[in-house]
Amino acid sequence: MRRTRGAVAVLAGLLLALLPAAGPALAHKGKLKLEVAGDGATGITVQARHADGHQLDTLVRLVLTATADGGRAVGPVQLEPAGEGQGFYATGPILAPGQWRVTVRAPAPYTSEVTVEVRAEAAQSAPAQVAAAKPDGALRTTSSSWLWPVVLGVLAVLAIVAGVWSAVRRRNDRENVGNP
What we know:
- 31% of the residues lie in helices and 26% in strands.
- It has two helices and seven strands.
- Residues 21-26 have low confidence and may be disordered.
């Protein structure tokens, strides 16, 4: 009887140790909904969710392959999560301009694959910045604009020196009053 309890305890422990590994996929039936699109230039974005609409709560290593007219191919490329949100992946610029057939696959335990047509466009440059005009009341920097603070500073230093010199002179005069 004691051996049976020990064997059951060991099997229960193994089951509990292995169950969490399959848990996330089993909880959502092992399917992902993958939304694949171009990023407006030469990259790809992927939004991955569970098929029931819930957000991904674990990291999934998606793999991308792409083919274009003329036999051009990209991949397989493992996608890394992007900072835009949970379940969001972005490739950055990996495609040349043109029409591409992009396939994204999720590895086991998920069984998802999606293929879409994407048009990659050459990236456009940012519009030129227009220099902001100064308002009419803006301070102008001329040779006289820095002169007044300097003159006032010099006068303040001279006033302090004169005050200290006067105080020292008065003290010396008081000390010498009784001495011939």
